[in-house]
Design brief:
Layout (H helix, E strand, L loop, with lengths): L1 H22 L3 H35 L5 E2 L25 E7 L6 H20 L3 E3 L2 E3 L1 E7 L4 H13 L5 E4 L3 H14 L2 E4 L17 E3 L4 H16 L4 E7 L2 H17 L4 E8 L7 H10 L3 E4 L5 H11 L6 E3 L5 H7 L1 H4 L3 E4 L11 H16 L16 H20 L4 H8 L3 E3 L5 E4 L6 E2 L2 E7 L21 E8 L24
Parallel strand pairs: 1-14, 2-5, 2-6, 6-7, 7-8, 9-10, 9-11, 11-12, 12-13
Antiparallel strand pairs: 3-4, 13-17, 14-15, 15-16, 17-18
């Protein structure tokens, strides 16, 4: 029995050694397994890596735009006056409807737009026009008064297309009105350019059409841009209060900022959030809550007159913390509030650049062409007010977008909307100050960066206004230290339900 047990033990040992040899990998086999696992892991990560490669590839070409504004080619602007625009003779022109409120409570927005569009058109006409359909044609402009009313907007847009035979419907202040412009453009197959409305929804799966191009920026990108500044550049204040107008624009501006804090400044805190009706005159209840909250910064998307009333009342109540903003830069209001009341405002803007404003001979020439007119020729209100003194901010942004349109038409060599669409989808264009914008092909949204600036007293404005008189305004704080928000940090939302964008990365590649 003892010998049997010994024999069984020997047999079991042999069996175990055999099993270990069969099932335990050798060093060579282990290396093969490890290599296979690494390959599988790389394969799993490949989609992200490929997506990143696409973005990196595009970022490298970001400095190589398809076309650029060349100030050296500007026409003689010595006779330009926005109050004295005259259309060129004849009907054989490139015809553009400027769809804005030219009357009613929003009429000042129409005056802003008219100055921007006529400046660009006057320049092009002085150059002799644009070569389209085999001949040089000048620009004719038509005031299309929306009155800020949806029914009127639809009526005037259809009249512009059917009676005035315009090639482009260009607008506007108010996303609700821009939506109507886009719908009319789609119905009659003409180009619509959005230079002034900011709602992301205008180009989503529900509202997108091939004929409408959003060359403006968006609420989501603006809000995220300001959050990027506080989280990645300034890195000081952490307690934020949100106060915006109580309609879609205000809510979207707030949401963009909150999304940006999560992405770029997770330690930032929202210590209060409120929304107010349009055109209120008493902000005291909201300001009391801001004071009690311990907020270090207020983020507001308010535009005038709300923006001005908000700032004035805040300063009167002794609330001197910064207001981070998009529209608290209107010069007439700033001069009324004064140097101390406007010091410390933090403004985000689409056209302007970080650092010194006058960064090239072309930028200086362009600026002087506008500012010399304001100083010497523009005698009609509101063009003779401080609001129109500098072609920066909204004025610069709207004007350069119009130049982008003219560049696209020039390169398309036609007013045929199909040829314009072919050029504009995926196009990149460089503004006079070097900012580059891209029209994302799948949803016709513009990709662009921003400038965020701290407002400082006139004596400290030389850092941005880097030529005589070395300040923007004598009686108000304005742009001092200014920083770039890179375009790749504020890419506009892309609706995954829009079939044209399926499978695209945020750059549209």
């Amino acid at each position: 029995m003892e010998s049997i047990r010994k024999n069984l033990a020997i047999l079991m040992g042999i069996f175990l050694l055999f099993a270990m040899a069969v099932y335990s990998p050798s060093p060579a086999m282990a290396q093969k397994v490890e290599k296979k696992e690494k390959a599988q892991n790389v394969e799993k990560k490949a989609p992200k890596a490929k997506a990143a490669a696409k973005s990196d590839e595009f970022i490298e070409t970001w400095s190589k735009p398809n076309a650029a504004f060349d100030a050296s080619k500007m026409g003689d602007m010595s006779g330009y006056d926005p109050a004295k625009w005259v259309n060129p003779d004849g009907d054989d022109t490139i015809r553009i409807a400027v769809v804005w409120p030219h009357s009613g409570p929003g009429a000042l927005n129409g005056e802003l737009a008219w100055a921007c569009v006529t400046f660009a058109a006057y320049d092009i006409n002085k150059r002799g026009g644009i070569l389209v359909d085999g001949k040089k044609k000048k620009i004719a402009l038509f005031k299309a008064d929306s009155m800020s009313k949806p029914d009127q907007a639809k009526k005037i847009c259809e009249r512009m297309v059917l009676q005035e035979k315009v090639h482009v419907l260009l607008g506007t202040s108010g996303s609700n009105i821009q939506k109507i412009i886009n719908e009319v453009a789609s119905k009659y197959k003409v180009i619509a350019q959005n230079v002034g409305a900011l709602s992301d929804e205008l180009q989503d799966a529900t509202n997108f059409n091939r004929y409408s191009f959003m060359s403006s920026d968006t609420t989501e990108s603006i809000g995220r841009g300001m959050a990027y500044y506080y989280g990645q550049i300034r890195k000081k204040e952490k307690k934020f209060y949100i106060l915006c107008q109580d309609y879609s624009f205000g809510h979207h501006m707030a949401q963009g900022f909150k999304n940006g804090l999560k992405e770029y400044f997770p330690e930032g805190q929202i210590v209060g959030e409120d929304y107010h009706k349009l055109f209120i005159t008493d902000f005291a209840p909201f300001l009391e809550k801001i004071k009690a909250s311990g907020a270090e910064v207020v983020w507001t998307g308010d535009w005038l007159p709300d923006a001005g009333n908000l700032l004035k009342q805040a300063r009167q109540m002794g609330i001197m913390i910064p207001f981070a903003n998009l529209f608290l830069d209107e010069p007439n209001m700033l001069n009324e509030v004064g140097v101390e009341g406007t010091k410390g405002l933090v403004n985000i803007k689409h056209f302007d650049r970080g650092g010194a404003t006058f960064n090239s001979p072309g930028m200086i020439k362009y600026y002087k062409a506008w500012n010399d007119g304001w100083q010497n020729r523009w005698k009609t209100a509101p063009y003779n007010t401080p609001l129109f003194r500098h072609p920066m901010g909204t004025l610069g942004h709207w004007t350069q977008q119009v130049y982008w349109l003219f560049s696209v038409i020039e390169r398309a060599k036609s007013t045929d909307p199909e040829k314009i669409i072919k050029v504009w989808e995926g196009d990149t264009y460089q503004y006079v100050n070097g900012r580059i914008v891209k029209m994302r092909a799948c949803d016709h949204k513009s990709i662009q960066g921003f400038r965020v600036a701290e407002f400082v007293p006139p004596a400290d404005q030389k850092v941005s206004f880097n030529m005589p008189p070395y300040h923007w305004y004598e009686n108000a704080s304005n742009v001092g230290p200014a920083f770039e928000i890179p375009a790749d940090k504020v890419l506009p939302l892309m609706d995954s339900k829009l079939d044209r964008c399926v499978g695209k990365d945020p750059w549209g590649k």
